[in-house]
Known about the structure:
Oligomer: homotetramer
Shape of chain A: globular
Largest interface: A-C, 29 and 29 residues
Order of helices and strands of chain A: EHEHHEHEHEEH
CATH class of chain A: Alpha Beta
Amino acid sequence: MSAKLILGISGSSRKGANTDFLMAQAMAAAAEIKGIQTELIHLRDYTIAPCNSCFACCNEPAAGGDIPCISFRDGMDEIYPKLKACAGLIIGSPVFFGNLTAQVKAFMDRTEGLLRYGTSSYQYALRGKIGAGIAMGGNRHGGQEFTIQAIHYYYFVHDMMVVGTGPDFTPGCYLGGAGTNYPQRGKVRDAAKVDDLGIKASRMIGRRVAEAVLGQK
Amino acid sequence: MSAKLILGISGSSRKGANTDFLMAQAMAAAAEIKGIQTELIHLRDYTIAPCNSCFACCNEPAAGGDIPCISFRDGMDEIYPKLKACAGLIIGSPVFFGNLTAQVKAFMDRTEGLLRYGTSSYQYALRGKIGAGIAMGGNRHGGQEFTIQAIHYYYFVHDMMVVGTGPDFTPGCYLGGAGTNYPQRGKVRDAAKVDDLGIKASRMIGRRVAEAVLGQK
Amino acid sequence: MSAKLILGISGSSRKGANTDFLMAQAMAAAAEIKGIQTELIHLRDYTIAPCNSCFACCNEPAAGGDIPCISFRDGMDEIYPKLKACAGLIIGSPVFFGNLTAQVKAFMDRTEGLLRYGTSSYQYALRGKIGAGIAMGGNRHGGQEFTIQAIHYYYFVHDMMVVGTGPDFTPGCYLGGAGTNYPQRGKVRDAAKVDDLGIKASRMIGRRVAEAVLGQK
Amino acid sequence: MSAKLILGISGSSRKGANTDFLMAQAMAAAAEIKGIQTELIHLRDYTIAPCNSCFACCNEPAAGGDIPCISFRDGMDEIYPKLKACAGLIIGSPVFFGNLTAQVKAFMDRTEGLLRYGTSSYQYALRGKIGAGIAMGGNRHGGQEFTIQAIHYYYFVHDMMVVGTGPDFTPGCYLGGAGTNYPQRGKVRDAAKVDDLGIKASRMIGRRVAEAVLGQK
């Protein structure tokens, strides 16, 4: 049997900075589990127009049935097949104003056609899959919880199954991988690299999603 | 193989009123799935002291290892084995001030000894199980979402897997079963009985938990 | 003394549809209060690039001190002075995946330079002002609460004072103006026009912000 | 003019431990502002029965009009007049399962008679007053945000005005005073005493409520 895919989506605008780093930790921990393969993509590498509520994805069959969004043909065309292929999904976002960044939200909003209302072969593409979240915030309690809840909300709309950080002691955050710059010991954009608890929680999330994907507790 | 148990916990103080009714809907929908058995308990039938943060459950082995809380011996002694036995858990709460009632929260707080930090045979008793929530609110958007998120938070701390209302169209609420008195067409305490959307969502939650417990999408 | 300004920001992509309608209700109710003037803008009329985390707004004085963001010169240049001028702010968003739309979030993220960390004359431009939120969702409990909480979070980061729907009976939602398509009685894009409770709550929000701006309870 | 009262309510079961300590910090910072007096009460010193949804407070005039709850005559009888007398309210709760403790929620639920639906002289007793929240959690991101949002929700139902931590740099948490045991440097029950950021944010909350009560930004 081929390995199951866990897709990681990093929403940071800054290459190699904190969110990327925590996402890489989660991916590495997941990849250590036998039977799992991982792929990490970065939203900054794609052009993604925000959904303009045309609802074409829900109201008419997309051309040939193979495109969930016919209104914008952009970087999402490359991401859609990955969403269909994966068995588990981990989204990581920097925290801006206590919530997801606009870029992460634009990606999310463009998956309307993968919902129950979709009219292409992508209908229900994420249904029943395992989801988890990671958030990196400048302040200690700067919105990490709310941002992970926003990721969870997205998963629930897609009828996914949501997992937290798992069974280990003192995960720092039960909802998902939460990192912070505080206490600040290095450069701001490298702060996550010295945030032991953020690293631990991100690795826990990767492992937890991997185990859930494989049907293990 | 014996049927898997889905435990329902209704937090209403009022026998047979709205929350009880929605919980019964969820239980009935779950019981229709082959391989599932259900049990619905009502917190008002038990005396439950609120946790006083003594942390005995985390700091010392409970007597004989078979009691997760040695500080209070009350109705929880009857509920603990049900929590250990179940494969899925659905908690339903009336919405008070946008959140769980104190009675539901008292039940939750008394399960500290079932966590990773527990020292009895109940350690990890809920880990890896399926969880979902139901909330009944007087106002239309009176806290149903926040209350279900509060139930989810509880599940994440226990390292459970959380599901929403499932794949059907227009569930009303994606997070869980959300009922409301508005528009009010009957007596207040019977309002849920004419809330088509609340009934639908509660049934969806029951079925979704049943399917997840059985390893079906 | 000149009238105090309440600024409304409608985040819908669809002109004249539900969110616009509820925002207009809020503005109309506010404008009925003596001493208040209102202005309603629509984000779809502006080009707004998402913040790319360059942090120029926080790290170096913007040219002449009169521009909070020097990295993108776009529609925000017209909106910034309105934010500085207003005494109260009401943001309305359609609900997408239980949360703000990407467009509303892009607007928010671009106000980083108005925070405590700003280096232009816009530093603290929103501080101490009154804020409230409106959310329009397709499902009955489809994220209206979470979306309004997301708006509130934005306000708290700006150190604003946040108000809910006020003292009247059965506001439908205490957090802010919450509208829904359900029960659907008209066309989807006109559904808010027959949503009595959404209209009522949106008007209450307008009046509540007006009163708070004037120092009245 | 007599000094305005800021009432602090500490919800910890443990005398002198972390939540009490952070609440005392908030009270001290508020009391430094001219024109402010403070009172800090501890819920553990009162017997408070949970509301049993009898709705007597909303359905019939309480005896003589001076008692908001006639069903239970207990410690709340002493707290109600303080709620009526205060101009600002700060509630502090330990975080249990990501949320308020049952004891704090029991207090909240018993203030139903102070709402718009109340039938005694306590109707609207909290309306228009300033509110803020403090949360102390064992894990770093263990529910502090959600717990403060739960406190805010309570305030919005009462039609209060809600403030966050104010204008200073790096408050740690924008929503309210958030403390944590991590990184753990002292005894668990004294952890807040070495949590610089939790202390800072709690003091900011005290000052912010004081200023808002006095009509200052």
